[in-house]
Amino acid sequence: MPDATPPTAVADGRRSDSMRRRERVMKALRAETAAGAEISVSAIARAAGVDRSFLYRHVDLLAQIHAAQLEPPPTSVDGAVPVTRQSLKADVANARHTIARMTAHTGRLERRLSELLGEQAWRESGLGAPLDIDQLQRRVDELEQYVGSLKDALAERDAELHAARGANRELFGQINR
């Protein structure tokens, strides 16, 4: 069965379909730009209801999308720049960095507080080292020297006692003979 539509009608239909798609792409590009949304080939194709390959086949539309990507976002009446995906990403990255920094700082503060509370509890319990350690160390040294001199004196007296016992044995031995 031969094709009933003449070739010019098919070409005209394709041309008008292409023009409708182009209009949808341009309308989507204007809407996304006005809304301050992220401008990308995928986003415009999605908003226009066309395939990305359509945009890549029409270089002039692709150039307009790339040009719109380079334009700064429109400002509002009060002069503020609207929120964009990139600005939100930057805000999230900054917030994560701040959270990480604050977490590390909080950890250091908690460790220091724990150390200080531990030292305070140690001192208050009476188990901790007294504050006048140098004075006590000098007293320990003095007592060690005193103990050493007493040991020497005891050793000397033990030697004298041993000698006296030996002399006693000799005398009793002489008396008993």
What would you note in describing this structure?
Helix 1 crosses helix 2 (41-48). The protein is rod-shaped. The protein has six helices and no strands. The mean pLDDT is 86. It is 79% helix and 0% strand.
Low-confidence spans:
none
Question: Rounded to an integer, what's the Rg over CA atoms?
Answer: 50 Å
**Average pLDDT across residues?**
86
Helix content bin: over 70%
| β-sheet strand percentage | under 5%
Helix and strand content put the structural class at mainly alpha
Q: Give the biggest sheet.
A: none
How do the helices and strands follow one another from N- to C-terminus?
HHHHHH
Distance between the termini: 163 Å
Number of helices: 6
Q: How many β-strand stretches?
A: 0
Overall spatial form = rod-shaped
Compact overview of the structure:
This protein has 177 residues and is mainly alpha-helical.
Topology:
Elements: H1 7-35, H2 41-48, H3 52-57, H4 59-70, H5 85-125, H6 133-175
Structure keywords:
single chain; 79% helix; 6 helices; 177 residues; mainly alpha
